[in-house]
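Following up on my earlier thread - several people asked me to post the actual chain instead of describing it. Fair enough. Here it is, all 481 residues.
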Amino acid sequence: MTIRVEVARDWLHLLDLLFSGSWNSDLRRHRSPYVFHGSHDASFPLQTSLQRLGGDLRGSERHLLRNFRKYARDGAGRHGEDGDSLWHWLALGQHHGLPTRLLDFTYSPLVALHFAARELRHFAHDGAVWMVDHTATNAHLPAALHTLLTDEGSQVFTTDLLGRAVSAGVSHSAFDTTALDGLERLSDSGFLLFLEPPSLDERIVQQFALFALLSSPEASTEAWLAERPGTCVKLIIPAVLKWQIRDHLDQSNVKRKHSTPFLSGRPVPGLMGAAQVRRGRQSRRDRNLSDVPRFPGASHYHFERPAEYCVLLSDTLSRDGQGAECAPTGLVWSGFRPSDDACTYPYLVPANIMAVMALRRRMVLSAANPHYHQGEYAAGVGSPHTPGRRVWPISLCIQALTADLGTVPGRAEAWALLDTLATTTAGTYMMHESFDPDEPTTFTRPWFAWANSLLAETVLTVLASEEQSREGPSGEAQPWR
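Reply from S.P.:
Thanks for posting it. Predicted structure:
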């Protein structure tokens, strides 16, 4: 058996496919039997976050739920009488990025489209919207669950209703992970149900969300649907349509700021540690974007340009504004190259070279350098080749040449160094090898060809920078003009 696949030809054809079969003759209203799951990559299977985790799924699931409840309890609060039930915590955990057996779905085809065309870095490949007929999947429920839905006049379960169906010998409002086994024991064959979470926060309401729940954590939702014809349609969204889709959704106010879940705008205390034990890294959805760095010790910087202002994928940073994945190496991180394109590899080599030069210059021109000497008439670098406290005119020229001559402060620094060189010749009007910064008449070599040649280059370079800028520091006339 296979799942029926449709490929959208254009925007209007896409809408026709998404809203197909929505007419309900009994109600005489357009009420679609489908629920929707958007994926930015059509090649991705319908796989739960728990399955992506791997390993002992049943053991991991119980461990994660217990720890999530332990650490998130204060931040999560309670929602009604079933606020401490297993099903409540399962839904809450899924909403905040905990690996669970649940799969995100929505009643809204436009919200599903948003998740299929949310990130610019995925616009180069096809996306998909999975359309599942939840009225058809309900026909395969165990008799007890099907009867319960019929009596309630509903097509989906709430956490309270599921708690009543799977009591596991305890109150349906109590937290008990054995309820997962109780659910599976309701039928000898696997079954799929849909769980509508409580209104945990404003964003889950905005998402019009519900979750798909298979009775077994190991079972594949995609395989289960493929074995039951008529329950699912996989709608392929060609990459060439993603920009148009994104533009239409933005104009319709279906945007990221209305769909990404947070818990009261802050991360759940302890949630990061609970999930990180099992996953190795934290999902972006668990965290407040401005509160969490790329890795421990990194900055909190992130940047995400609105899609309507992006022409190329490289106009914004991927991963919700964090940029390409990286690990701490001691190098300087860059989001963008000087060309304004986002960095594919965030440790930009030219930027690191420039940073090394700037840091090295700062260290050389400081007390951290044992050969840096500061006196009444000058401050600069000397050499072990000359005795005592001596400043070399060569070092002052190099300092001027490495100043940022493209800026007013940089040119001011260079002019000040040229003034120092001009006033420390001891009346010889020549560059020496070295001189005493407190007493310039004490020097070595009355003239030094190397230093005189470098001075000429320095003067010409600084004058050229002035010509380019057409201004001198503070507008004052310079003695070297």
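Residues 261-292, 472-481 have pLDDT under 50 and may be disordered. That should answer part of your original question.
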